[in-house]
Amino acid sequence: MKQALKILILEDEPIIAMDLKENCIDLGHEVVSVCYTYTQAMEQIEIKNPNFALVDIRLGKDEDGIIFGKKLTEEFGIPFIFITSFFDEKTLSQAKTTYPSGYLVKPISKGGLVAAIEVGASNFQKWNNGNESLEEKIEKLSHSPLTKKELEIVKELMQGKTNFEIGESQFVSLNTVKTHLKNIFLKMEVENRGQLIVQLNK
Fold first, then answer.
1. pTM of the entire predicted model
2. Are residues 10 and 90 both part of a single domain?
3. Domain Response regulatory spans what residues (predicted)?
């Protein structure tokens, strides 16, 4: 991958977190934040504006990386990879509902990490790019017409841009982007960003 990613790491074990950070830096990426709790990660995502994340599923103290993954997909549109020691049927089923870009089982090798990041980021970008006329799909699927601004936001969303990047491009705040997305979801009769992308890629 030619372009360096801005990666947020959510991992409650400091040694593993630092190892992930060092490997990401060695691969030419920027680690914008290393977080040990869900609350810390939610705070840092607003400040550091990452465009990729590595997320541990079991965080301890009843915190859950699955919930954070869902936030990344539905609210921020940031691709991520789950990193975990668990691969039982229940955990996998829960993980799949968040549309992760990858799933790595610990211990994680450097080679495995680079492959997962490269493929995960690439697949996310490809998944978000429609081949047919986006306007035609939206017109066919929407419950009511989208405004010009809403259409512009959907186009950027389908290019794989995060909510932060959409806000910068449209010169609006993150909260304004979220408001537009809520209206878009309502008109397109979907519940979140992931469902919208799936609908428009059919």
1. 0.66
2. yes
3. 6-121
